[in-house]
Amino acid sequence: MRKLLILVITLIMLGAATPIAAQSDAQTHYLLARPLPATANIRPDFGFPYGWHRNHQSPIHHGMDYLNPRGTPVLAAGAGTVFYAGSDTDFVVGPQPNFYGNVIIIQHDFASPEGGAVFTLYGHLSSIGVAQGQRVDQGAVIGKVGATGIAIGSHLHFEVRVGDPANYGAVRNPELWYPPAAGKGKVIGRLLDVNGNPAMGIRVVFSTAATVQPTFTYAEASMPSDPMYGENFVMGDLSPGCYRVRVRGGAGYVYDESVCVKAGQTVLLEAHMNG
Ligand SMILES: [Zn+2]
Q1: Which CATH number belongs to the domain containing residue 126 in this structure?
Q2: Whether 43 and 165 share a structural domain
Q3: How remote is the CA of residue 150 from the centroid of ligand 1, in Å?
Q4: Per DSSP, which regions of 26-162 are E strands?
Q5: Whether pLDDT at 44 is above 80
Q6: Distance 101 CA to ligand 1 centre (A)
Q7: Residue 162 CA to ligand 1 centre (angstroms)
Q8: Which of 5, 138, 171, 229 is the most exposed place for a label (fewest CB within 10 A)?
């Protein structure tokens, strides 16, 4: 039986006056859970986020990475049907064969707000525990973390695809599809340049007196924003509190504002760079 989740999401619009989403919109997205047990490292690597290419040192990243030891159980992020389970040598779902190694794709039982079927993809697995066509419940163990395909070290590569599961470009930022971790908050951001266009590859730093957490923006046709948010970065798993959000420019900062998040809260931030 499907579990009903009552989500309490507070959305605050900061900066510009144009809302980038309403509260009901986020509720339509928070339908998945994290693809790992709570005992594993469930914090994604925000230093190599969705849409980033490590200053052109890597292929642009179509998902998020969870660094975990080989053998860590991988869980179905939501209930659904296994669309594919096997090597991506024969069934190519990345930019080249054997990119994701052992890969599982699950089709979920809900559609995206804009109407496409929603899929999750789990890459670089050391082992696969499900078969094509099999039904899975949310939280079911489907495989184990590994480093098959093109992977630097053992980690789970996790993607959300909408519409076409075999289309490498049909991705969305997975961070948009599950709520903040217990006791944490999330910022969904849109960073705009001086002409009002979404900026690509900009380092956005969230800092407090004790912490510095960078992430990078995305804004390319091959790396879609969610049609509902128009976002180009997400910073998840923020401890409650206020953060200085800054973007460095030529001689100083071209964006320098404060944003506060509470536990369980998702904050929408529209940030305009002034240089
Ligand atoms: Zn990855």
Answers
A1: 2.70.70.10
A2: yes
A3: 9
A4: 64-67, 73-75, 80-87, 102-111, 117-125, 127-128, 135-136, 141-144, 155-162
A5: yes
A6: 12
A7: 18
A8: 5
